[in-house]
Amino acid sequence: MAVFKCAACGAILEARCKPAKCKSCGAEKDKLVKEAAPKKG
Ligand SMILES: [Zn+2]
């Protein structure tokens, strides 16, 4: 599970792969930045 943070609204999205859009504000994936995963594996 990877964690992505929306640079537009700050929402945290958890997904196995990069979401197409921010679920919170609808920003395109260009705005989603991969964050450090909470745990490895
Ligand atoms: Zn957003």
Automatic annotation (TrEMBL):
This is Uncharacterized protein.
